[in-house]
Amino acid sequence: MHNKDVLLESIKQPMEQYYQTMKDMIGNWQPLVEVSEKILAGEDVTNDRVAPQLHFLVDWMKLIMQVTRDAEWDWTKPEIQAVYKKIADSPIYKTFAEATVGIVTAILKTGQIGTLVEIGTGPGQVTDKLCAEMTHYNINVPIIISDRSPGIAETAERLRKLNPHLMIADFIWDIRKEPPSELLAKVVKPVLLYERFCIPYGGYDAIKSIAPVADILVMVEDLNLTGKKEAYDVIYEKIGLQFFTYVEAKKIFGEAFLTYPHLRYQNH
Ligand SMILES: C[S@@+](CC[C@H](N)C(=O)[O-])C[C@H]1O[C@@H](n2cnc3c(N)ncnc32)[C@H](O)[C@@H]1O
User: What is the residue-averaged pLDDT of the chain?
Assistant: First the structure.
């Protein structure tokens, strides 16, 4: 069993740090909205219209427009995973990774978790950092990483080589479908499921597929607070990302995770 109050107390500090860093790093999103409107309209824009820490997002949106003009976006393609790896090395993505790892590690340190499950692992930058923290704090909870892309086997092989002392299993799991039975057979409850930017690729229905596996969910997503779809939301739809609003997601999470629907939002 896990204790809700102990868990919420454990994540206070990493949540507070994340909130502060984001506030300092990204004050105003408006220039990005304006640039994304121009990119969507096919105008040639330079990335110096936004703050330096957001330049990579301008390049990312331009690349999405260029690639999806002639072909479908395919996450399983090694070239796409390679480009994403660069994005994931940007300071803002590092902040997301540090927050996820800080929160997951804080929960692990309470000693209440049986298995860790990651969805949409991709090239595994978050997992890399988490393995380093688990090693540092001598935490041996088994990890299951997963992705819909078969490249997950390669990521797992790399992580196992780097961390031979940790138990790392890998599965192909498309979160729009039920989890593989072999994965379910491996988990020991309580399960902490975490992710960074995967759930909206599965759509709202994916929440229902992951809920039966996860006792606790830690997620990093851009959930829209205004309900208004901006140009960048339309651009991201071209790579399979669904427009997720905070209100709708919260409702579905609330229904699916009856026990702790507010874990993710307690500092808002
Ligand atoms: C934006 S990347 C994030 C990768 C990694 N979590 C990170 O933060 O660096 C999205 C990942 O989700 C995976 N993905 C997309 N749709 C998925 C689905 N339906 N089921 C499982 N994984 C999916 C992609 O293959 C990709 O690795």
Answer: 90
Residue 73 is assigned to a structural domain of this protein: yes
Q: How far apart are the CA of 128 and the centre of ligand 1, in A?
A: 16
Instruction: Output phi, psi for 186, to 5 deg.
Output: -90, -20
The closest alpha carbon to 122, from 160, 76, 163, belongs to 76
Task: Give, using CA atoms, the residue closest to atom 4 of ligand 1.
Answer: 122
Percent of the chain at pLDDT exceeding 90: 69
The number of the ligand 1 atom at minimal distance from the alpha carbon of 81 is 27
The beta strands (E) that lie in 191-244 are given as 191-196, 216-220
pLDDT of residue 258: 66
- How many structural domains are present in the chain? 1
| 209 falls within a domain | yes
pTM: 0.91
